[in-house]
Amino acid sequence: xxxxxxxxxxxxxxxxxxxxxxxxxxxxxxxxxxxxxxxxxxxxxxxxxxxxxxxxxxxxxxxxxxxxxxxxxxxxxxxxxxxxxxxxxxxxxxxxxxxxxxxxxxxxxxxxxxxxxxxxxxxxxxxxxxxxxxxxxxxxxxxxxxxxxxxxxxxxxxxxxxxxxxxxxxxxxxxxxxxxxxxxxxxxxxxxxxxxxxxxxxxxxxxxxxxxxxxxxxxxxxxxxxxxxxxxxxxxxxxxxxxxxxxxxxxxxxxxxxxxxxxxxxxxxxxxxxxxxxxxxxxxxxxxxxxxxxxxxxxxxxxxxxxxxxxxxxxxxxxxxxxxxxxxxxxxxxxxxxxxxxxxxxxxxxxxxxxxxxxxxxxxxxxxxxxxxxxxxxxxxxxxxxxxxx
Length: 390
What we know:
about 400 residues, mainly beta, Porin, about 10% helix, globular
């Protein structure tokens, strides 16, 4: 069976260097029960494709309830239950946190994979634009959470937060191939729903916050996908083992991101690279078109127009943020055994406004110009929505 041995080396690296996602911050330092949540309600309208009319879409995209409990100053439980599109219910987080010492904790349960910005900080009031970036949706893929155990900590002396964990891998083969060229690894998220595992994968993140207004992040994920082809496998049958091995994808994902805020100015950028191995055998046995390299990046600039630009509506509690973002995500950057499909090399430019009427409450509107490398044609989409977080 093909398995990655680099996990132990990476664990040693990250253990020498306390990180919290948004839900953990609500619980931190306060005794007893904590209740909160966030919500995103969207309106999306695609532009006309020639003479073809497209209806607009109205959607309660997600409603998430947060429940956390501090048992004492060392032990706490964090959970989030998500309702998507009104009818779908998921558990987004459910883990126990125990502080070994002041700046070091052990965590176990269903946890967010610490890859990129929006997988950890995905509340709609925390990012510009109505929808999450597609780099985070298709390359990472947000919201990515799996079952496992790990450590999180903080080095105050070096202004560093870190996380390191062992988790189950993606479900890559379940009565057929799960991954695809169009959506990459996204459909393989197990989400803690009767997840299965052969060997654990490694995920880790280090972020630096030592310069005022600046946050730099480095994320890594290394391991292999899971496969139902191994369940009940006769290891003495070489042919059966070789067939099962063909359903495994090796995943090596790296990400770097940066956020910088100075006064009313906001700068954000991110780059994600995923190298996948064994895709030629996987595509042959599943008739899929999974790429062997997935890449994605975006750069964004935002500015609070209420800070002196529009003086007659100055406010100490409200913000009107104008932003522009350029984004590219390619799930066929490289392939093995199948031809590159340029339709999967996608670019988006997004221009919009976010009116923050209170801390954690925002009206959003933006316009997106979408294209791909296979065609010179562009399509447009208007989005409007609200986001709340409390």
